[in-house]
Prior knowledge:
Oligomer: heterodimer
Distance between the termini of chain B: 37 Å
Number of domains of chain A: 2
Mean pLDDT of chain A: 83
Amino acid sequence: MASLAEKTGSPESVMPHYWLRHLLAIALAAALLAPSVPWITDAWQNSPLDSPGQWFALLALSWWMAVAWLVSPTGNALYWEGASFDLLSLVTVGVGVYFDVHVLLAAGSLGLAWSLSRFLVGGSAWVLLLPALLLALLALPTTAYVLQQAWPFDWPVTNRGMVLKTVLATIILGTGGWVLFAQVHHRCLRLGFADSAYVTLALVASVSLAMAFRPPEFGPGARMDTSQWAFDRWIGAEIDATPAEQRLYDQARLSKRVYAGPQGQRVALLIVETDDVHDLHAPEYCLTGGGWQTEHRGTAAFPVGPGGARVSSIGVRRGEDRLQSVYWFSSSARSTTDLVGLRLQNRIDPNERFTLYLVSALDNDPDTSQIALREFLGAAPWL
Amino acid sequence: MLQPDVLRRGLAALMLVLPGWWLQDAAVLHGDALAALILAATASWLVFQRMTGQVAGQRDIRDQLLAVALVTASGVLATSVLLLGEGKQVMTLAALVLFTLSLVAALGNRRQLALVVIPILVLYLLVPMLPLFEAALSYPMRRLSAVLASLLLSLGSAEVRLSGTEIFVGDLQVSVTSACSGLTLLQHMAWIAWWTVLSRHRGLWRRAAHAAIALPAVLISNTLRVVVLAIWASVSGPEVLASAGHAYISWAAVAVAAFLFFAMGSIYKPSK
Lengths: 383, 272
């Protein structure tokens, strides 16, 4: 198995116009990412959880420049060694387009740009540009949400997604710096076709494994009859959505209500109806982005709706304020709390419209909040 | 150059995190906690020792291809879990085992892989699935003990009948319950057998053949326990089944099983 130094040849084989080659590679990345740019910039501007994404993009670009400055594009591109990364990126783009998942399309485009850049910048620089790809992936919207959902521990930190992204970026930069140092001192990574195929397949298998541990699940439909404002001694009133909510649910039909119960309980209900599944977000997305800190997350202790759907329960805290909520997405046929399942189902049947229901008890005491939620959902009118 | 030794040690440490996590789950320790902990500790020690030790032999393309094959099988299995739906815990864990083994093959070689297969299977499959194994094995073990015990008891003068896992000796009824199934005895014998074969033999098949003796040793010992309890109860009355003597006989059964295991194991000459 030849080392990269052996593959990349002697100093005489330095490619000409190497800055131009790097700029061309960056232009290629920008071109491939172009269809995703409106989605990315919109999320950076409007989604609190994704708003610092531009800093990670800047870090990725800085890393690329550092590699371009420190490592000359030399020798042969790793034609076959990179083929499995080409394939993985293409498959990711394909899956993103087919299932209409923005983040997969953008991630696949970035991966393809990095993989193809080996033809422009040479094998040694290509491997060292991997941290730039990883930092660019962290810049994409949704990654903070995915990270905080995947993090298994209850961690009393505000904006956990941003903290996790920062920690990951530090690890990437530290490891990348170490490998860059080794490369500059002529001790480099070994890479062959079998290694690159293994890394690619391991990435795919780890995603499959992560999903296998938490497969999407659906329950019976749980839709409320939203035309009823008074039921079983509960009386509701419409309230205005905040500007942030209106921006976040741009194209969706938003209804925000407060209901008063027979013992003075107060429960807020947010209903988001949309024709575009992209408008539906898990409430953790905006709550944690808005400075709320997750205290617990899990399945609600009680079933909801006529079929007994299992819904998600979250408890959040911001300063002295505490909020207990349950939420679910439901069409007329099925309900789920899983965004991945929602997207898959939407692909199978694009005409099946899902609605987000977020029910929150307006009470600082978690115990009485849970009672109020149970009573409200027990009395609510169901379709 | 990245140092494979450093990576292997890091992998060894990572591989022990998950089983540690599983052992936090009370369900895993639902049965005999001590036996489960000793099994997990033995497997952890072996994983760490064998992953951080010197790797015999050179790494070649066959090791790389083996790693690729294992990780592909892991991905296929994990994807099939997704397609088949939830509740496929065994398949998910098997996919995780294959993924972990692929990492060992990718960072070490196939000889090292062969060394860690058994402890990884124990840590990643047996320990988290202990409650399921217990549920699956409990009735067959109870039934087997009841059949063997009734056969032995029928050699005596009293009339013996068997119904499921209930033994009727004259007017006395003895139930072979889950606690009397011999499963706990088997768990204890598993780690005794493991340590014994590790210290006496080299090679997977020789060790497996010697360790397999644990099963007949447990069956014989547990059958004897049921027989002794049944005879004692028929002589002194059924209340003895709730006495401290019942527990002492159970402990004696462990000693008898261990003795039988060592005695029968003497047919194997030590190869170490």
